[in-house]
Amino acid sequence: MSYDPANIFAKILRGEIPAHKVFEDDTALVMMDIFPQSRGHCLVIPKAASRNLLDADPAALSAIMPLVQRVAKAARAATGADGVRVVQFNEAAAGQTVFHLHFHIIPVYEGVALGAHAGGQADNAELAGLAGEISAQL
Ligand code: AMP
Questions:
Q1: Closest CA to 56 of 68, 45, 42
Q2: Tens digit of pLDDT for each residue in 72-115?
Q3: Residues with CB under 6 A from ligand 1
Q4: Which residue in 23, 49, 85, 133 could disulfide with 30, CB within 3.0 to 4.6 Å?
């Protein structure tokens, strides 16, 4: 299957749809997930176009992993989470719903169950606050 530039993350990368941005440079965007599975759930999105890990340029993958680590550490520091889950889905059968490569950074709190994948929408003001707090730890 080929990359569809009309996917929602491509629209966000082009600035056509707003996002709670945590970080942006020439190669990547980090934003809050609007249907978070936990407090602080954010997404690391390489700007290079690929559906997912399977068709990604290995060089783009090498370039993005240090940022995945930085954001995982920053999200943990900002939220006080006990752990961090890093998740990435490839194709619909595996749970992928947006077909532009992204890595989920999901803070995990001892004794608190994670919400459903792409479940309820979070409060905008809370997401804006978390974006600022995670950004400050980067
Ligand atoms: P995946 O199943 O890995 O493709 O996950 C896509 C993720 O994107 C889900 O966790 C959704 O909650 C999230 N999502 C969908 N639309 C938006 C949006 N406009 N802004 C931020 N996150 C989104």
A1: 45
A2: 999 999 999 999 999 999 999 999 999 999 999 999 999 999 98
A3: 8, 19, 31, 33-35, 89, 95-98, 118
A4: 23
Distance (Å) from CA 104 to ligand 1 centroid: 9
pLDDT digits (tens, 9 = 90+) for 23-32: 999 999 999 9
DSSP state of 125: H
Which residue's C-alpha comes closest to atom 22 of ligand 1?
33
Supply the pTM of this predicted model: 0.96
Q: Which atom of ligand 1 is nearest to the CA of 36?
A: 12
User: How far, in Å, from the CA of 62 to the mean position of ligand 1?
Assistant: 23
Q: Does the annotation count 102 as an active-site position?
A: yes
Of 56, 37, 38, the closest CA to residue 48 belongs to 56
**Among 16, 37, 60, which Cα is nearest to 108's?**
37
Q: How far apart are CA 51 and CA 126, in angstroms?
A: 29
